[in-house]
Amino acid sequence: MVRSKVSGKKVVILGGTLSIVVLFGITFAFRTLGWTRFVANAELQEGKSNVVYISRAVAACALKTGALPPSSKKVPADLAQVGGKTYASTAADWSDEAFACDGFRMRDPQRFQYEWDKTSDTEGVVIAHADFNGDGVVEATFEQELKCEKRGDKLRCGPGAFKDRNR
Q1: For the residues 81-107, what does the mean pLDDT come to?
Q2: By C-alpha distance, which of 163, 118, 144, 146 is closest to 51?
Q3: Does this model's pTM top 0.90?
């Protein structure tokens, strides 16, 4: 009778170790992919939310003043300022009437460039652009249209189409 040099105890230890390494690798892969997806969705959520918030601020301004404010400058002025990084805006960045009339401003660092574009006396659109990897190419764009109608001396505005133009 020939005895094997590998005992049952060694086989169990080797099999258990191999199983732990495989499970760790699988868990790590899923966790990494899940985290990457979570971060990407969080970055996109900023733009989605803020175009809606800005359009509400513009609508509130129109209700107060009886007219849509003129188109705004872009915040930040250059897309490269949010390209692959965040931008910490100041109160001065949000001084255009479209933002300041109802007191809109961002206090947290931003990954999107925002602007209000008045397209007519009763319509306009808030636009957000992002260049997440800093290559100069826009990877995400969100647009929230604003549509208004005159009622007496008041301008009543509501949301129009929301457009998600992501690549």
Answers
A1: 94
A2: 144
A3: no
